[in-house]
């Protein structure tokens, strides 16, 4: 995933290249990296200035972005059918939906049983650090207090931002 001064966030997929056999007698090494990166998606554009930081949550799959416009934006990926219609919400997909997947074109090649996804904005906060730019964003886990009779409390997530105002802010998102 990359962010840019052109106010876009792009999702990339790695496609390994086929290995070419090289002569053992040659001392010249192939400079090829052995992989191509394919642009898979561009997240919905909401930022009006450059995006400085983007973070992906390993726990929920959500993405948060910040930048020169002072906004904090949270995105979520959803499954969609071949017509782009939403199948599920909150990243959850039923087994029946998975079996009903249609043929989808990806990189010009049709593949059976894959569904496309789309990204949507689930929350956005303007002026998170007042008039200042936000330089960095990260996800962190938030342990919930233990309830009586439970071994562990349920975990949540927090968003941490740092800005030109010199402060670090912690945000809890409730959706």
Mean pLDDT: 78
Fraction of residues in β-strands = 35-45%
How does the major sheet shape up? 4 strands, antiparallel
Helix content: under 10%
Q: Which residues sit in consecutive blocks of at least 5 with pLDDT less than 50?
A: 93-113
Number of beta-strand segments:
12
Overall geometric form? extended
Q: What multimeric state do the chains show?
A: single chain
Distance from first to last alpha carbon:
24 Å
Rg = 21 Å
Helix vs. strand class? mainly beta
Helix and strand element order:
EEEEEEHEEEEEE
| Count of DSSP H/I helices | 1
How is the largest sheet built, in terms of strand order?
Answer: 4-5-6-9
Give a quick summary of the entry.
Helices cover 3% and strands 45% of the residues. It has 175 residues and is mainly beta.
Protein model, in words:
With 175 residues, this protein is mainly β. 3% of the residues lie in helices and 45% in strands. The protein has 1 helix and 12 strands. It has one helix at residues 95-99; strands at residues 2-3, 9-16, 35-42, 51-56, 63-67, 72-80, 104-106, 109-111, 116-125, 134-143, 155-163, 168-172. A 4-stranded antiparallel sheet has the order 4-5-6-9, with no helix packed on it. It has a 3-stranded antiparallel sheet with strand order 1-2-3, with no helix packed on it. Strand 4 and strand 5 (63-67) form a beta hairpin. The protein is extended, with a radius of gyration of 21 Å. The two termini are 24 Å apart.
List its salient traits.
175 residues; mainly beta; four-stranded antiparallel sheet; three-stranded antiparallel sheet; 1 helix
